[in-house]
Amino acid sequence: MTSSAVPIAVLISGRGSNLVALAGAIESGEIPARIALVLSNESAAAGLVRAREMDLEAVAVPHRDFSSRAAHEAAVLERLEAASIEWVCLAGYTRLLSPDFVGRYRNRMLNIHPSLLPAFPGLEVQQQAIDHGVKLSGCTVHLVDEGLDSGPIVLQCAVPVRGHDTAAELAARILEQEHRAYPEALRKLLVEPWAIEGRRVFLSSSIGVVEGGSD
Ligand code: GRF
To answer: Where are the alpha helices (DSSP H) in the chain?
Structure first.
């Protein structure tokens, strides 16, 4: 790791498999970043354990300990600032963020979502995709704006929805691609020149599609 490694925070609420994927890509030198902080709003998040196993600084800032969203966010921001965080990666972080928080990390905060946005924002999206009868789903890495899963799209990866898929089967097929897409999106934004015009993110070297999600 070089001294030019960008300090990033990964915010989680659950199992942390995308955190592990990001950490692996950083460890292998693909991304010039260092995970300076893993933060969870759930103290029981399995991802915190995985973070500590990887020797990452990992803290719980439980939202239930605070009387308001603003107070919780202020505590989270304090942690981010103390660690000089430049980029934030939301990875299964279940708290909605206020416009103030979003403004602090505008165009420096990413989220990953298990559908091809703008289809199926929100929760239980794999079941929604199956119920709707779509033939393709996938994952989307996007910059975070004030809306729910609504920010400018950086990169997407499609996977087929099979005839009798359960939500769990589809989720597993999508998750496999999430683990490729999230590191690749972060790498592109940190390493390559890019621009944003309105909702459109222009990447320099290639289109924002991760291929190979057919199985
Ligand atoms: C992923 O499916 C991600 O797309 C969604 O929440 C899930 C988090 O999984 N936002 P993990 O905690 O990274 O394993």
So the answer is: 17-27, 46-53, 69-82, 99-104, 125-132, 167-191
